[in-house]
Amino acid sequence: MDNSISKRMSILIITIPILVENLLRFFFSFADMFMLSGLSLDGVRMGDHAVAAVGLVLNFVFFINILYLMINSGASIVITQYNGAKNIKKATQTVTAGVFLAAVTGIIISLAMFFLAEPILSLYRLNEIRFGFAVDYFTIFSAFSLGLAMNSIFSTVLRSYGYSREPMFINMCANALNVFGNYCFIYGAFGFPQWGVAGVAVSTVFSQILAAAVMFFMILKKKDIYFRLKNFLKIKLQSIKEILKIGVPTAGESLSYNIAMIVMNFFVAQMDFGLPPEAQINLPAYNYAFIFARFILYFAYSTGQGTQIITSYLVGAGRKEEAYRNVFKYFYFSFILALLIAAVLSLLRNTILHIFPMENDIFILCSSLVIFTMLLEPGRTFNLIFINGLKGSGDVNFPVKMGIASMWGIGVLFAFLFGIVFKFGVIGIWLAISMDEWTRGIIMYFRWKSKIWQKKALVKAET
């Protein structure tokens, strides 16, 4: 079995399906926003309000994702290091513990967020239209986010064994189904009720549940993944501890980042507070611009995911110098690619933005923000590659501590100063995000270069 896993542990074999899956997810999300931007109810155009509301809620969706990432990252790193060390029994025990933890976490989060959705959103002081859209989407998504939890952990298990194409194809079909459902619910096509934003949420959760079910049965059919339902009767407490030991601090860095982004969204929402609806341009422009940023992000993000998997395997196998050299190669490629894509999108920004039927003032502000992706995204590449390399090696505490210090001491602080105090608006917030990304990224670069992480491996290779 180990030889077959070793053959699959190639950066191209691992990363390309992840990249394809992430890009497809982006384009389907792009289609979601495009369809929402044209939303009309009783002949009144509601598109910008719908985009602003759903864009705001998506920050909480990412927050929920990060809570699941606590399980997924820990399970992925531990499973892959055990596979690298040829310890099949321990890898299997970790798979069972990871699925169990994901299910329990998913149930708790689904219940908690369902009841907290409206109180949380009321803090943003949205206008009545946006508040209604946001509550509809958040409540429905939260109630069924267990499907997202299981989809995520099953994808993680497959990738930890080198199977990255299977999650790609399954999620590709699920996302296509999601877009079809969105179209039906937004426009009332094929006899579906015209539920608007609520329908988009229903379509999203249904596609996630279906994808999780398909991946579950696929895992049962894989001969080298010894996962069976009866294994839940023999869950090892030690496996749970190992996952949480890595997963909690690993997710801590991402959790801190997402909370910081939620706070920055709060700053943006306050810029629109008290203005007439037609003058509330900051939040929709900010969310439209983030579509561009997320597209560029997925290239380095996918390489970062592949970097973590490959690094975990090599460190578990005792091939630390090879891991050291590889991460630098992955970084240089990702950095140049991010810069080129940001430059091209900046040049084509007005042509692309004309796809969305947005108001002219929102268009002008959004166009200005997109230019700053040339500053933001190359800096973010440092974090996505080197932090994932550090996590894969088992060095998880340092990125969390530095991440929290930089995100809040630079990102949030300067977002408040530039955006609110000095009244630079959303452009000031964008600059603050860029400062944080570059600062953290350069620090992580030198951390990787120091090779301190080579002493942090969780397991030892069998001889």
The helix tally amounts to 16
> Over all CA atoms, what is the radius of gyration?
22 Å
What is the terminal-to-terminal distance? 17 Å
Query: Would you tell me the overall average pLDDT?
Result: 86
Question: What's the SSE pattern?
Answer: HHEEHHHHHHHHHHHHHH
Helix content: over 70%
**Strand order in the largest sheet:** 1-2
Total domains: 1
Structural class: mainly alpha
Rough shape?
A: globular
Number of strands: 2
Instruction: Tell me the major beta sheet.
Output: 2 strands, antiparallel
Low-pLDDT residue intervals, each spanning 5 or more residues: none
Strand content: under 5%
Summarize the structure.
The chain is mainly α and 463 residues long.
Descriptive account of the structure:
With 463 residues, the protein is an all-alpha fold. It has one domain. Helix content is 81%, strand content 1%. It has a two-stranded antiparallel sheet with strand order 1-2. Strand 1 and strand 2 form a beta hairpin. Helix 4 (88-122) runs antiparallel to helix 6 (146-160), helix 5 (128-143) packs parallel to helix 8 and helix 15 runs antiparallel to helix 16. It is globular and about 65 Å long.
